[in-house]
Specification:
about 500 residues, mainly beta, Immunoglobulin-like, five-stranded antiparallel sheet
């Protein structure tokens, strides 16, 4: 990596502490030392810990942690949604080194729980009862989180998992007590009131990813335990149909998976192949989905450790895995068929044995680049994986109206153009065809550009208008097929 770790620390955590919290140097140093001491309890490589909230730290008397997800408010503030056995906890992680538990929403006690987000609502399910919890997050910046309703229509009580396609506005329960645990679709046209509109009952489903294809079809990759992988056309909710069933050698329990952004390959966890001794080390299976009706096993890779695998997600060229006792594992999948481990953080230091303790989930999609990880025994971990992913990173000096602003990018393509953009409208999704990149900003405006040096560093100095005083601004940088994190700052 061309950028030092100190540069990343300077550009993000230190600046947040100085500008948003206005702490003294002595206090900032003390916080850094405490964080370093806590992080030292856990082994890692190229991933560090900002902070941790233990299961008991949520104050609900929960027995264990389970799922986690992320939410970004209209103001750009970032939140972790952490599942614990008796509640969903909402934690602000805008300053990742100083997380704040905003509120918890209780539910019946359950080892298993799962959460997803659509617009300003979170949807939580568990295996003890209550159906789908619909939780309003729209006023979370003011400390208000409210349970709107529990969806129990058609006799729904329990669901192992919940899936949301944010591109189409449909929610799906899987592994529920209705329709054989299949794929049950709900329309989110009114996000506060999901309405069932169809179901696919070809198999019990443990988990799924549902995506919209460029041709408009909605395709569900369904991970069906002992039955393997089913690929389902979910476009017509009244007549969802099977495209292909895929199996592989050593199939034990096809648990979960995620597709690459080009929709050429699907990466799959089998939760029990290590447990039953079919595989000596953690295995991730690769399925070629470039031609859906002919999808087939294409390869596999391993961490080399005996731990069981649980959940994984793909972000750009990287795969983020939650592998129970061996923690968060990050792979560089630039070569889609031959991923190479790029970094890791072990949330469960006791051992790396096969079994079902430790890291349940990992969430790598917050615009800031902060990574969330949930551990069954040790709670919520807030992580910095910037060194492992070797991404372009943006940092911004404090902004003052009528003064020059300095913006810094590291990790860009050497000697290539870098474009700095900003928005006053917040985060969103804007595709730039000329650069083949999707920005995480709504209504972005070009601020300027620079040519990266041989180390991949670029800088822009720009005058901040007097009229911008007290306004929030969202800033991002990009290059051809690449982009940075989003920085949200208020103009002083």
């Amino acid at each position: 990596m061309s950028v030092s770790r100190a540069a990343h620390t300077r550009s993000r955590a230190a600046r947040l502490t100085q500008t948003r919290l206005a702490t003294t140097t002595a206090v900032a140093t003390a916080i850094t030392l405490v964080a370093a001491s806590a992080s030292a309890q856990y082994s890692s490589d190229k991933v560090s810990m900002y902070d941790q909230i233990t299961v008991s730290g949520f104050g609900t008397g929960a027995d264990n942690g389970n799922d986690c997800w992320g939410y970004v408010s209209a103001s750009g503030r970032e939140y972790a949604l952490m599942g614990i056995s008796n509640a969903l906890a909402v934690v602000e992680v805008t300053d990742p080194a100083n997380p704040v538990v905003v509120d918890t929403v209780s539910h019946t006690n359950s080892l298993w729980g799962d959460v997803k987000v659509y617009q300003d609502y979170a949807y939580f399910v568990n295996e003890s009862g209550g159906g789908i919890d619909v939780i309003d997050l729209s006023d979370v910046d003011n400390g208000t989180v409210s349970l709107v309703r529990r969806v129990t229509s058609d006799g729904l009580r329990t669901s192992h998992n919940v899936v949301v396609n944010t591109d189409t506005g449909y929610l799906y329960t899987v592994g529920s007590n209705i329709y054989g645990g299949g794929l049950v679709a709900y329309d989110l046209s009114t996000p506060s009131n999901p309405v069932r509109v169809g179901q696919w009952t070809g198999s019990y489903i443990h988990d799924a990813q549902v995506v919209r294809y460029p041709d408009g079809r909605e395709i569900a990759f369904c991970f069906c335990g002992e039955n393997g992988l089913y690929i389902v056309d979910a476009s017509n909710k009244n007549s969802m149909s099977t495209i292909k069933r895929v199996t592989y050698s050593g199939l034990s329990y096809c648990h979960q998976g995620w597709a690459d952004e080009e929709l050429n390959y699907l990466y799959v966890d089998d939760e029990l192949d290590e447990y039953y001794g079919y595989e000596p080390t953690t295995r991730t299976i690769i399925v070629d989905i470039s031609d859906l009706p002919n999808s087939a096993y294409a390869g596999e890779f391993t961490t080399g450790l005996p731990s069981s695998d649980h959940n994984l997600y793909v972000k750009g060229d990287y795969i983020f895995e939650a592998n129970y006792t061996s923690g968060v594992r990050i792979f560089d999948a630039s070569d889609r068929l031959n991923p190479v481990e790029a970094g890791w953080f072990d949330t469960y230091p006791s051992n790396n044995s096969v079994g079902f303790n430790g890291n349940w989930n990992v969430y790598p999609y917050l615009p800031s680049g902060t990574v969330l990880a949930s551990d069954m025994q040790r709670g919520l971990f807030i992580l910095d994986a910037s060194e492992a992913v070797d991404d372009m990173r943006l940092s911004v000096d404090p902004l003052f109206a009528g003064q020059m602003a300095n913006l810094y990018v590291t990790g860009a393509t050497a000697s290539g153009p870098v474009y700095f953009v900003y928005s006053l409208a917040g985060t969103g999704s804007t595709y730039l065809a000329a650069l083949n990149v999707t920005l995480d900003l709504a209504n972005p405006v070009l601020a300027g550009s620079d040519t990266a040096d041989v180390n991949g560093d670029a800088t822009l100095s720009k005058m901040v208008p007097n009229a911008a005083k007290n306004k929030l601004v969202w800033i991002q940088a990009c290059e051809y097929q690449g982009k940075t994190n989003v920085v949200n700052e208020q103009v002083n």
